[in-house]
Amino acid sequence: MTQFMNNKEDIVTDAVDGVIAVSGGKLARLDGYPHIRVVVRNDWDKSKVALVSGGGSGHEPAHAGFVGEGMLTAAVCGDVFASPSVDAVLAGILAVTGPAGCLLIVKNYTGDRLNFGLAAERARAFGLDVSMVVVDDDVALPDLPQARGVAGTLFVHKIAGALAASGVKLDEITKRVEKVIAGTKTIGMSLDTCTVPGSPKEARIPKGMAELGLGIHGEAGVEQIQYSDASQAMDAVVAKLDAHMGEGEHVALLNNLGGASVLEMAVLANEMANSTIAAKLKWIVGPAAMVTSLDMRGFSVSVYPVDAGDLEALSQPTPLPAWPGVSKITPVTVLNLPDGLAPIKPLPSEHAETRAFLTKCCEILIESEADLNALDAKSGDGDTGSTLAGAARALIATMDTLPLADHTQLYRAIGQELSQTMGGSSGVLLAIFFAAAGDAASSGLSMTGALKAGLVRLQEIGGAKLGDRTMVDALHPALEALEDNLQQAAKAARAGADHTATLTKANAGRASYINAQQLEGHTDPGAEAVARLFEHLQG
């Protein structure tokens, strides 16, 4: 996969310089590039306990992103997924450690333990007071004697950072964070592996599967499970965590492993807040990308049973944008709609033929969802099918509340329902179409006349004309032919839809932003939906 980099050998040094360049002068790096890559606070005076962490790169914003007031004093950056050298770690210790001493915060990987541990010994030989803690929060492999250190390390960074900033001595900080490490538990899940710069992507996780308990260096998880949706994914994660959680109030850290969208992470936050461990969770850090695995499309959840002192330390402000802060998990608040927006619905009435007809229309759109999405992906954003199918499902769900025996009121009710349930411009336009059709029907026009009036209003407000490559190209000829019969309307709709594939310029909708080469030969999805609707209805 193509990546935004210059040379893979320079990606870490380029990234470190980028972090420093946009820090507003708050960060600096030690000399010795490229073998020594140490990011330090530019304002550090060595009067308090220094906090040094680090490890392999590829976990950004960890570790350099957490260097600053209230958190780390220095971060030692290795190559991608590789521990930094002993000399690099020692350089970091010597650069920031004063009489108050230094705490090394190390994730439990062999290379990190050895390199940081030897650097600590050498620093002590210089007469420095250096303590080291090893984070081992991963619960994916319960029988493993050396559990991995993963995203729960951030609890240690933040709590130790707050204590150091307030002047707490090294021995006390070490004691406090050892308690944090003992109580922190983490597990991750991903739908895909990560892409190491300059290397081919490993296709280890089959489609329809998720990997549970994988590491932050792309290591294989403890098991692959069937993936169905976000709820099932979160259930699998919290089930592993629940076995390790005691009583009391916990803080959760919801971490994006790098490739999940912000939208997906918000969905996962909702699932976590309603999961089987929700009663134990009172606070949350995130959701955010904090300890990533390059572009891994996954997430991890860390939990820790906080006391008042821990919560105060976690809540201490820090100016670092990489730290999202601690928030209380609360129930969703629902406020009433403002006056005038709460819909006044007509009285429901039953009419078997109308119910069957409307249901069939909805089922046609639902069955066409995937095909219409595929068409839309060629000229738009790939959601026409989902938008129409979603509205169709909503109409089916609300069928019992519709005035099926009063077509004038039914048009208006459909328009009102679409305005609430159907997103995008198409939802607004169809709401206008049906509302105008309802107004026309109330003045005595026939069904065809009312629908034509609705189309006129839709075109007036939406601006689309025949030949603009929209649903109008199928709907207009269909309604003109509907005076004859439904079969003729279906033929006219199909001819209009097929004609849009010959049009290389769209004058309305998202397709108007697409060049001619991408449009040619592809039917407009809105027009195709209209054609399919009429064709299936005539059959």
From TrEMBL:
Keyword Hydrolase in the entry? The reply is no
The enzyme's E.C. designation: 2.7.1.121
| Pfam families cross-referenced by the UniProt entry | Dak1, Dak2
Q: Please, which domain of life does this record's source organism belong to?
A: Bacteria
Residues of the DhaL domain = 352-539
Which keywords does the record carry? ATP-binding, Kinase, Nucleotide-binding, Transferase
* Annotated GO MF terms: phosphoenolpyruvate-glycerone phosphotransferase activity
Residue ranges annotated as transmembrane are: none
Which stretches make up the DhaK domain? 7-323
Keyword Transferase present in the record's keywords: the answer is yes
PANTHER family the UniProt entry points to: TRIOKINASE/FMN CYCLASE, TRIOKINASE_FMN CYCLASE
This chain's protein is named Dihydroxyacetone kinase subunit DhaK
What organism does the UniProt record list as the source?
Hoeflea ulvae
Per the UniProt record, the lineage of the source organism begins with: Bacteria, Pseudomonadati, Pseudomonadota, Alphaproteobacteria, Hyphomicrobiales
